[in-house]
Amino acid sequence: MFSSTVAADALRRAIGQPENQAVYPSLADIKAVRPNGELELVLDLSKASALLPEELDLPLTTENGMGTGPFRVVSRDTDGAVLERFDRYYLGTTDIHQILIRPFDTLRTAWSSLLRGDVDMVTDVPPEAVDFIRNDDVQVKLFARWYQFLIVFNGQRDPFRSAVVRRAMNFAVDREALIAKVLQGQGQPSTGPLWPRHWAYDASVLPFGFEPQFAVTLLDGAGLRPGTVPKGPDRPPARLRFTCLLPEGFSLLERIGLEVQKQLYDIGVDARFEVVAFQEWDRRIREGDFEAVLVDMISGPTLARPHLFWALPRREGLHAFGYENAEAGRLFELLRRSTNEGAIRSAVGRLQRVMLEDPPALFLAWNQRARAISSRFHVAEKPGHDPLLTIWQWTENSSRRTVATQ
After folding, report:
1. Where are the domains of the chain?
2. Predicted structure pTM score
């Protein structure tokens, strides 16, 4: 456990790192960090910062690389990493002495190693493989992620400057069918940027439904009638046609894209997908060089996450999608500064309504992740949470003391 002096130094270093400033913008509100006794820090702020407590979950390390968890990294290279038990972990000592982390070129190779007993956990099992992996020797643990699949529109380009067009796209998609067909039932429909399990979320706000005829009516009203875009080489006539970026090698995103493409085609929208290398995909997002892009975006569990992507003003990096809505920006700023529970609940409900009327993206589904773990281990359960968070509490059902993970 850190002393307050060591923790203060670690937090100051974290605040000074550009990558942390981008992901945790409320750190900029901290003027000074002071130790107060052995177990307390005092933060001097330049202004009220309601999202700061939510953003103080950033990792801290000391100058010698020591962290605060139950394990410490003792070696790391291209072949993986070795973690050893930290006997002074403040919540208690784990029974697991060592964790070996091994990278695999393909998930299939990792699964085979798990089934043979060469490794004890595979960290990410695709939805279609869960039933294949699960057996008497392998337990699969599912948990809801704070990420959602969505197609983000470039709000600085036609026809996506129009909120009506973006609303129409959201009414055109059958999210339940998408979850059933592509995610094998492992997901929850998404119709907005806010985590639906946040304490201030207003469940009375009606989400987008699957109303393709209403989507057609909206597009007609926006002047996008059948044949507005003429037939092109190997492309049918359409109400509108757009190109959506996909990162190469992400097969689940490709399958989601294909299902959405079919559903949009039913209302006369021609979605074309361009698959590019991940580095180019990332660069083009940051530079605004796209019409639309399919992403798996963190949007919870706090309000700080959607604030990163949708609050004003536009800037390079995380807020690179071109969404501009003055009322949404005002509400995000209110949420960033307010500490009144009633005001926060009211602002969140209003923000939900604003972003239903003017959605920045085609929201698809909150997703789940599956961890495949050898049944030789008893996994400490924390419902709804990643089992990796409790790995220090796992116990072995055999005399083996080493856990290898992908």
Report:
1. 1-62, 145-367
2. 0.85
